[in-house]
Structure formats: structure tokens, C-alpha cells
Amino acid sequence: MLLFVNACLRDGSRTERLARMWLERRAYEGEVVELSLAELDVNPLDALGANPLAEYSRSVADADYGHPMFALAKQFAQADEVLIAAPFWNYSLPAKLHAYLELVCSQGVTFDIDETGGYVSLVKAQRITYVQTAGGAKVEAADDHSFGYVRTLALRFWHVSQVTCVSAWGVDAPGADVEDLLCAALAEQ
Ligand SMILES: Cc1cc2nc3c(=O)[nH]c(=O)nc-3n(C[C@H](O)[C@H](O)[C@H](O)COP(=O)(O)O)c2cc1C
Fold first, then answer.
1. Which domains, from first to last, does the chain contain?
2. 9-39, pLDDT tens digit by residue?
3. Which of 40, 45, 110, 169 is surrounded by the fewest CB atoms within 10 Å?
4. How far apart are alpha carbons 22 and 95 in whole angstroms?
5. Residue 5 in contact with residue 82, Cβ under 8 Å?
6. Is residue 134 within 6 Å of ligand 1 at its C-beta?
7. Over the stretch 162-180, which tens digit does the pLDDT of each residue have?
């Protein structure tokens, strides 16, 4: 199963278009499950609210993952491959995707810690692709807090061997030919 985490939050999203172009080219033979964060109530871990940190800590300590806050992590752990698509926001990624990833990084569900303090992956996926579009031109280290963040999770927690990014920069520049920029981003990958 390829899990498509769609964190595009706007009608007519260019990032979503790029992700669908990537999916078409990928021609994945198995099931593709799309998770639209726009349609999902995703809440961060917090002192109060839907996902209380105390309940998270208790669940991890007891290895009891029955609380609904672990459902997204369980789904992620079962995916054979993951595609994440998100617009580039404030040199980072949308807060909703961050909240989603926070829940996905549930200890005991997608990763664990061994007796030496090392991270042990509990996910099946060996390939994660991150797709983004940005309004402005690329500057050095621009995606440290978007793709760079996802890459760190993928490499450190999940030991994913293939972590790649497809980025289209400058899509909001005056006179930009967005279709050309998206095609070029795909070709560069
Ligand atoms: C809240 C917000 C923050 C943004 N921050 C940046 C930014 O830091 N750098 C940049 O180049 N573009 C920024 N943009 C522009 C988006 O990256 C650009 O419009 C992108 O293509 C949006 O993707 P979409 O068409 O999939 O919604 C921002 C846009 C929004 C709405």
C-alpha cells in the first residue's frame, strides 16, 4: 500500500497537482490510500484537548496503543511506501502536517528505542517521497524545515533508505509558467 499524505490545503493547489503528476509517473501497482489532511481533524499533543500528552506517555509506558491518537501512526507503519505533499509555508511546512507527523512519530508504533538508546524502525516503508511547491525562488538551506525535517525523521527514526524530494520553486513569481516549473521539478528528481 502506498500512503499518499495530502497536506495541500487550498483549492487549485499546485503542490497537489505536482503530487498527482508524480503518482501518475510512479504507476504504483498496489493500492494507493490517500489521506487528505484538509478533511481531517488533526490535533497536536497538548496538555488538554483531544490528544493529551499524559495519555500519550501512559500509553507508551504501558505499550497500550488503543487510544485514537495512535490510529494515524498505525496506518503509517503499515504503508509499503509513502508520498507526502505539502506547500512550502514560512520556510517550513503547514502546522497541520507538523501535527500529523507528531502523531505519526509515536514511540512503540513507528519506532522504538533499544537498550543502547538507539532508534529501531517499526515502519515497513523503504521509500518516502516529499513533494512541495514554493512561491519564491530557492535560497540556500531553504528546505531545512520542510523536506529537511521529514528527511531527518525518515533517516533517524525509520531508517528509510530512499528519501527524496520533488520541489518546484518560484511558482508565484510574476509571469511564472507553473506547468513548466512542475514538469521541470519532476524531471530533476
Ligand atoms: C501561509 C503561507 C506561507 C508561505 N510562505 C512562503 C515562504 O516562506 N516562502 C515561499 O517561497 N513561499 C511561501 N508561500 C507561497 C507558497 O509556497 C506557494 O504559493 C505554494 O505554491 C503554495 O502551494 P499550493 O498552490 O499547493 O497551495 C506561502 C504561502 C502561504 C499561504
1. 2-188 (3.40.50.360)
2. 999 999 999 999 999 999 999 999 999 999 9
3. 40
4. 24
5. yes
6. yes
7. 999 999 999 999 999 999 9
Tell me the CA–centroid distance for residue 156 and ligand 1, in Å: 28
DSSP 8-state symbol, 47: S
Atom of ligand 1 nearest to the CA of 8: 26
**Is 90 close to ligand 1, i.e. is its CB under 6 Å away?**
yes
Long-range contacts of range 15-18, CB-CB < 8 Å, 24 or more positions apart?
Answer: 15/85, 15/86, 15/87, 15/131, 15/132, 15/133, 16/85, 17/182, 18/85, 18/131, 18/133, 18/166, 18/168, 18/182, 18/185, 18/186
SS3 state at 100? helix
Angle 22-24-27 (CA atoms, 0-180°, nearest 5)? 105
> Is the shortest distance between the CB of 91 and ligand 1 below 6 Å?
yes
Q: Which three cell numbers, joined as nine digits, stand for 186? A: 519532476
Pocket test for ligand 1, best of 5, 17, 36, 88 (most atoms within 8 A of CB): 88
Q: Whose CA is closest to 168, among 182, 151, 187, 149?
A: 182
3-state secondary structure of 36: strand
Can you give the pTM of this predicted structure? 0.97
